[in-house]
Amino acid sequence: DMQMTQSPSSLSASVGDRVTITCRASQNIDIYLNWYQQKPGKAPKLLIYAMSTLQSGVPSRFRGSGSGTDFTLTISDLQPEDFAVYYCQQSYILPKTFGQGTKVEIK
Amino acid sequence: EVQLLESGGGLVQPGGSLRLSCAASGFTFSNYAMSWVRQAPGKEPEWVSAISASDGRTYYIDSVKGRFTISRDNSKNTLYLQMGSLRADDTAVYYCARFIGGTSYDPFDIWGQGTLVTVSS
Questions:
Q1: Which chain A residues touch B68 with a CB distance below 8 Å?
Q2: How far apart are CA A70 and CA A73, in angstroms?
Q3: What percent of chain B has pLDDT above 70?
Q4: Of the ranges B48-57, B60-69, B86-95, which one carries the lowest mean pLDDT score?
Q5: Burial A26-57 (b: 16+ CB within 10 A, else e)
Q6: Angle at A22 between CA A16 and CA A24, to 5 degrees
Q7: Taking CB atoms and an 8 Å limit, are B109 and A55 in contact across chains?
């Protein structure tokens, strides 16, 4: 199976900070990398798909980049509602695997 | 409003069976491939199974092959997951999720609220 490795596993940041989360795939997945946000007790929410396409309704402070095996989620001007767990997921091949998550906490 | 609503979770003994349902509303259900994704406590989501929009093609993660069956009834706008020979490591919140488009590369854009399955004696 395709392994997805995120780093860091957690980070502390303040409102207004810029945050970067990375995701590495064990094989080339072209651009088929998606990012989700999950808050406690809720289902994951799609933020970005196909590496850099912003899902409808998602603020433009979220940006995805990368290609091949290395990808990045950047959150600019962190807002209070952005404190959550973020998962990457590859949709290139079955099974559609997720990263282990990055928890963004308030400093 | 586009919505998915799961039901059917609960406590079941190891080796037992359970059927999950997912009622869809607010969109043309028969136009979309659908999936089940589970999440064990404190873990990342895990894709479990998928079914195509209309021709019934099904896909499973290896750990549930032969034990779980995904199906859909487009006339009832409902997705199902029949789970059998349940094991403790099947314990998770089970979400139904919609593929955003019509390709195998698509992400999941709509998720239900989840239903908890606990396998324990």
A1: none
A2: 11
A3: 100
A4: B48-57
A5: eeebebbbbbbbbeeeebbbbbbbbbbebbee
A6: 170
A7: yes
* Pairing label, strands B34-39, B46-51: antiparallel
Query: What pLDDT does residue B8 have?
Result: 98
Task: Record the tokens describing residue B32, joined without a space.
Answer: 């979309």
Q: Is A97's CB within 8 Å of B108's CB?
A: no
pLDDT digits (tens, 9 = 90+) for A69-97: 999 999 999 999 999 999 999 999 999 99
Distance from CA of A68 to the nearest CA of B (A): 14
Q: Distance between the two ends of chain A, CA-based, in angstroms?
A: 36
Alpha helices, DSSP H, located in B1-121? none
The rounded distance, in Å, linking the Cα atoms of A101 and B65 is 26
